[in-house]
């Protein structure tokens, strides 16, 4: 087994990977930018190397040289950054190190959406009706669109996250859509190539998790429903999907299994599908990385997916097959972002106070702590609140309890947004598609209160007792005039204020 791994990532996922490495007695190397020097991934790593302002989490050569210098044997890319970059995988291999992920060639094929489609068709997987190949001129596009029938979706072959994607509701929108998709694709990905698909409305976004070893063993681990998104940002994910019947699950798993096996895929991967209201399913794209929402699958299948990734990369056989996989209970994840819950604008800044929920069936994956500053330079994910239960009904109750218990002061978060969704009748009934959030927002059916803080969960009596204890604690640690002033201020008014407001006022001083 590897003795040391470099984690080419930051934040939540770097911490997530490190925790598993520690359990596997594998030493970890963090890399970090100056703005990340106070990050938990730096504090929790065995060794940490800072990179110059001119480099970054995308500097392949620096990362590989650092791994070599620090005597690591493998590199875990996490998600985002270099996770799906075939050149990075190639360079790592050439340096004599192990990339924890699939072959570069597989990533290159699946990273090209048009090639991925063609590959899946060749494996007998149902795909979204569409044209094969790159659009070279408008006549060709008009012909394909007429055959498919409008609306059509113009998609960039290098696309992701909805970029380079344009909807054409009718023929007169095709030319403009084509041109703007191509120019966006060129500026975002350096590749202007686009292709056409029929636009499917009212679908769910359902993805199947898979693990494959070097010896042809493939297991599927059920599905995740990721329909609750806004502007292609996933907000809530759950497993299983409320829409999927056992028969449909078996068929989607079989298709995924066959395709992954035929592709000689290795590692953890995900096949994304659209599922329509008649329960037809269509392949959309494959992700050749560990995903943010892998946690909900972990909770229902009982496997540590990062551990499985590392074991597979080290050449171990899975050691189990599909008949050993049992999917139990229900899991749901809310992404807690540093964002205004009303406008969804990023809201970076200092988290004066951070207290995650706990208790039965609650898991929080995060790199946050009281006093940590969410940087505007990276994504706005504070952490993932993941809950597990026997049934969806139990999970809904537990998630509401956990959201109410989650206390973050100093910055705005998506917690109030999640609370409104969790209270929505359609969501509770499991009735939603990818248009859910936008439709509800457009119809003004989501009454989200713009509050930077959440209702106080601690009763005033216990607060009063704790206020003096907190003040005493600051007194012994506080050194500046300013802090003394604040303590006096808290002591004079404090008895009537809530504990967590005061904790917010004094910042990360009390830990
Ligand atoms: C689609 C689609 C409907 N029809 N393709 C979104 C990002 C990328 N992964 C592909 N996506 C979609 N492709 C066809 N032919 C629906 C989505 C889609 C979506 C579209 C609008 C609003 C929210 C969405 C959420 C997930 C997927």
Automatic annotation (TrEMBL):
Protein name listed in UniProt: Biotin carboxylase
Species of origin: Candidatus Desulfosporosinus infrequens
Keyword Kinase among record annotations: no
Gene for this chain: pccA
PROSITE patterns: ATP_GRASP (PS50975), BC (PS50979), CPSASE_2 (PS00867)
Keywords per UniProt: ATP-binding, Biotin, Fatty acid biosynthesis, Fatty acid metabolism, Ligase, Lipid biosynthesis, Lipid metabolism, Magnesium, Metal-binding, Nucleotide-binding
Molecular function (Gene Ontology), one example: biotin carboxylase activity
Enzyme Commission number(s) from the entry: 6.3.4.14
Annotated Biotin carboxylation domain residues: 1-442
Statement: the UniProt record of this protein carries the keyword Lipid metabolism: yes
């Amino acid at each position: 087994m590897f003795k040391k791994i470099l984690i080419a990532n930051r934040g939540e996922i770097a911490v997530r990977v490190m925790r598993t490495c520690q359990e596997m007695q594998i030493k970890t190397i963090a890399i970090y930018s100056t703005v990340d020097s106070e990050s938990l991934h730096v504090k929790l790593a065995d060794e940490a190397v800072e990179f110059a302002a001119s480099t970054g989490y995308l500097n392949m050569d620096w990362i590989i040289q650092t791994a070599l210098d620090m005597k690591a044997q493998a590199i875990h890319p996490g998600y985002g950054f270099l996770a799906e970059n075939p050149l990075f995988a190639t360079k790592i291999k050439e340096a004599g190190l192990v990339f924890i992920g699939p072959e570069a060639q597989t990533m290159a094929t699946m990273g090209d959406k048009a090639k991925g489609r063609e590959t899946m068709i060749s494996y007998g997987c149902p795909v979204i009706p569409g044209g094969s190949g790159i659009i070279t001129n408008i006549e060709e596009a008009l012909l394909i669109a007429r055959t498919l029938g409008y609306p059509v979706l113009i998609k960039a072959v290098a696309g992701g996250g909805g970029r380079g994607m344009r909807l054409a509701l009718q023929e007169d929108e095709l030319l403009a859509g084509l041109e703007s998709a191509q120019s966006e694709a060129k500026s975002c990905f350096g590749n202007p190539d686009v292709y056409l698909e029929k636009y499917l409305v009212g679908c769910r976004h359902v993805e199947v998790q898979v693990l494959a070893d070097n010896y042809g063993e493939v297991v599927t681990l059920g599905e995740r429903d990721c329909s609750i998104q806004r502007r292609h940002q996933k907000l809530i994910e759950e497993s299983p999907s409320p829409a999927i019947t056992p028969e449909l699950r078996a068929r989607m798993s079989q298709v995924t299994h066959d395709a992954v096996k035929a592709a000689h895929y290795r590692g953890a991967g995900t096949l994304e599908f659209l599922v329509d209201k008649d329960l037809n399913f269509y392949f959309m794209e494959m992700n050749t990385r560990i995903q943010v929402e892998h946690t909900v699958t972990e909770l229902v299948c009982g496997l540590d997916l990062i551990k499985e990734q590392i074991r597979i990369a080290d050449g171990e056989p899975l050691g189990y097959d599909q008949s050993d996989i049992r999917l139990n209970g229900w899991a749901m994840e809310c992404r807690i972002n540093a964002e205004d819950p009303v406008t969804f604008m990023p809201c970076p800044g200092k988290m004066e106070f951070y207290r995650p929920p706990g208790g039965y069936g609650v898991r929080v994956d995060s790199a946050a702590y009281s006093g940590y500053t969410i940087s505007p330079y990276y994504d706005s994910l504070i952490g993932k609140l993941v809950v597990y239960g026997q049934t969806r009904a139990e999970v809904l109750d537990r998630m509401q309890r956990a959201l109410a218990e989650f206390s973050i002061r100093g910055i705005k978060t998506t917690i109030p947004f999640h609370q409104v969704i969790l209270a929505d009748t359609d969501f509770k009934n499991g009735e939603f598609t990818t248009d859910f959030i936008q439709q509800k927002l457009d119809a003004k059916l989501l009454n989200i209160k713009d509050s930077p803080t959440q209702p106080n969960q601690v009763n005033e009596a216990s607060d009063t007792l704790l206020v003096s204890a907190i003040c005493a604690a600051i007194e012994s640690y506080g050194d500046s005039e300013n802090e003394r002033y604040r303590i006096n201020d808290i002591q004079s008014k404090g008895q009537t204020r809530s504990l967590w407001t005061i904790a917010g006022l004094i910042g990360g001083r009390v830990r």
